[in-house]
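The record is passed on directly below:
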Amino acid sequence: MSWELDDAAARALWPLRSATTESLGVLYRLPDGSIAFTDPVVGGKNRAKGSFSIPAGSLRGIFHNHPLSGHKAKDRNRRRFSPADVKQAQRLGVPSYIIAGDQLFRYDPRPVAPDAFSNV
């Protein structure tokens, strides 16, 4: 399911790669098991917020873009998850995805299973 979620996030975020304002949305599971995403809510230059209506228990991830700001320090850091981004993902217990230019990033607050890397 991780690859399916990553693919859906990429499809949702790719149109936002050169946006000049921040936008956000959510990824959720449909009854057939596939992953869908909401239309992004467009925010301001440095911030976006919104609410979404999806089936209860179907949330699988959140996504948003980090547009260029024109400030060197901010633009250098736009490839990083802000403390607010991390806190939101942790609170919801789902991965968070960002796009900065043509680069996609994922932060997953869920612990890795101890046997995930075993050679069984």
About this structure: The beta strands are 23-29, 35-37, 41-42, 59-65, 96-100, 103-107. The two ends are 20 Å apart (CA to CA). The mean pLDDT is 85. Residues 65 and 99 are 5 Å apart (CA to CA).
